[in-house]
UniProtKB/TrEMBL annotation:
Keyword Ubl conjugation listed: no
Molecular function (Gene Ontology), one example: adenosylhomocysteine nucleosidase activity
Enzyme Commission code: 3.2.2.9
A Pfam family recorded for this sequence: PNP_UDP_1
NCBIfam families recorded: MTA_SAH-Nsdase
Protein name: adenosylhomocysteine nucleosidase
Length: 220
């Protein structure tokens, strides 16, 4: 069984429609099932994402998983609706530097939680077949919506990140702990600077549809 995760209700709805996951299931979060497919709406933020992934991987025999959603661009070359195939994600708001760890490095000794290379390659091939603009990169995850260009530039310089969002590193962490392969893919909605909240709202629907198309292509 394949699992698809998304944080926002609009993202999850687009995935459900694209994948034919129409059967609602009981649980602590919105879950819908299709033929050998599960779509989970995690809610926003790292805690919500980790909880949702852990719940699904405990309850269902998941063989591979994808976390799909939107993000703000840190790299100015990324345009609205471009796909960022995340080679890995770092929690930019984790700071254990008083204990000799690098900024973003967790107590597990891991700073960058990677996407599964095989699934990331599948996502790359799917995006290519669909003709969707895409590139590989690094995602910075934190429990704050970023709408400050100076801080965005700092995150890009400090972590080598290309986009910023609020769930990816936590989702990859949970999958890593369970030993289940997961890939993280983000569609750009904004530039993580002034006016980011308006751009996010403006592009959320189109980005969600694009991610639904990608999800469909990932089935084959």
């Amino acid at each position: 069984m394949k699992a698809f995760f998304a944080a926002e209700a609009q993202e999850a709805e687009a995935l459900r429609e694209a994948l034919g996951a129409s059967e609602p299931l009981s649980g602590p979060l919105p879950l819908h099932r299709g033929e050998e497919i599960l779509v989970a709406e995690t809610g926003v933020g790292k805690a919500a994402a980790a909880l949702a992934v852990a719940h699904v991987l405990t309850r269902f025999p998941i063989e591979e998983a994808y976390f799909l959603g939107v993000a703000g661009a840190l790299d100015p070359s990324l345009k609205a609706l471009d796909l960022l195939l995340a080679e890995g994600a770092v929690q930019w708001d984790v700071d254990l530097t008083p204990f000799g760890r690098a900024k973003g490095e967790t107590a597990f000794g891991v700073r960058l939680f990677p996407s599964d290379p095989r699934l990331l390659q599948k996502a790359k091939e799917a995006a290519s077949r669909l003709g969707l603009p895409h590139r590989l990169g690094v995602v910075a995850t934190g429990d704050r919506f970023l709408a400050d260009r100076k801080e965005a530039e700092r995150l890009r310089a400090e972590f080598g990140a290309h986009a910023v969002e609020m769930e990816g590193a936590a989702a990859l962490f949970a999958a890593w702990r369970f030993g289940v392969p997961m890939a993280l893919v983000r569609a750009v909605t904004d530039g993580a600077g002034k006016g980011a909240e308006g751009d996010f709202s403006a592009f959320l629907k189109a980005a969600s549809r694009r991610l639904g198309l990608l999800a469909q292509a990932l089935l084959y």
